[in-house]
Amino acid sequence: MILIGRNTSPFVRRVAISLRLLGLPYEQRLLSTVADRAAVQAINPLGRIPALLLEDGEALIDSGPILDYLDELAGPEKALVPPAGPERRRVLKLVALALGAMEKSLACYVERTLRPADKQHQDLLNRFADQARAGLAALDQAGAAPWLAGERLTQADISAVAALDFIDAFWPEMLPQGFAPRLRALRQQAYALPAFAETRP
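Below the sequence we write its predicted structure tokens.
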């Protein structure tokens, strides 16, 4: 399998972490949606990353369908999202919070870096930043231990760490000092695992 995209994208990174945790071998092509736009669009007409090229030539696009496929390969015992029941719903809710934080913080990043300062919409930036912080705050209050959904590491933890790392790397001033202490402690725990440490953006 070939993963398309750079780990600076939290969406790509959550796939890279998952591949490593599940022990699935892969190559990675470090394509950018800006510098390598044509190459990315040849794989995904939307010009978005990540994409995952399978050995038979099929291309999976967007992190959600890719991760669903990886869980299918891994089987229900190893899958990073439980297959059914309240445990599955809890993990998917936590993942949705993390994805919301990713999406809004990425929108802030694009607005701040690609649009001239005098053209930036500050009210919109503030709203996106508030939404990203709210998502992370909800994850911080999730209340389970040692992982967000309980005893087992799940996609919720992977996605939460990817979201927090993206913000800390590209817009650290978005988060007040001391923000989300439980989530930061969870990140430290996750970084004891090579899958997290080796994919750091």
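The mean pLDDT is 94.
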